[in-house]
């Protein structure tokens, strides 16, 4: 605060500013739930497109006789098994099961 003399009033070097808050229209709130459900359906569609690739990746891993390790699983579905283990070794007559098929 500065004072210019005995008769003058103290002046503040800063001005006060009024802050206003922007308010969105109510229509926005109803459209956000539609956008959310659209995002969920897109995520489900993406998942359904990826599953066949994961199954094939797991079967190819088993056919190639690669070494399995927890740091490098055969497919993404392997991480969701209760015990994250290598795919089971099966006889030649038995069909190979992917980790996704072992989940269900």
What tags apply to this protein structure?
mainly alpha, 41% helix, elongated
Account of the protein in words:
The chain has helices at 26-63, 99-103. It is an all-alpha fold. The longest helix has 38 residues, at 26-63. The N and C termini lie far apart (75 Å).
The biggest beta sheet is recorded as:
none
Shape: elongated
Query: How many extended strands?
Result: 0
Low-confidence stretches: none
In angstroms, what separates the terminal alpha carbons?
A: 75 Å
Short description:
By secondary structure, the protein is an all-alpha fold.
Secondary-structure blueprint:
Layout lengths: L25 H38 L35 H5 L1
């Amino acid at each position: 605060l500065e004072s210019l003399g005995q008769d003058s009033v103290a002046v503040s070097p800063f001005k006060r500013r009024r802050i206003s808050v922007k308010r969105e229209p109510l229509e926005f709130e109803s459209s956000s739930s539609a956008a959310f459900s659209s995002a969920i359906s897109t995520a489900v569609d993406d998942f359904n497109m990826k599953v066949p690739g994961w199954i094939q990746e797991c079967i190819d891993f088993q056919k190639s006789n690669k070494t399995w390790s927890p740091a490098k699983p055969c497919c993404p579905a392997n991480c969701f098994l209760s015990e994250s283990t290598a795919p089971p070794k099966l006889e030649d007559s038995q069909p190979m099961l992917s980790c996704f098929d072992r989940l269900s």
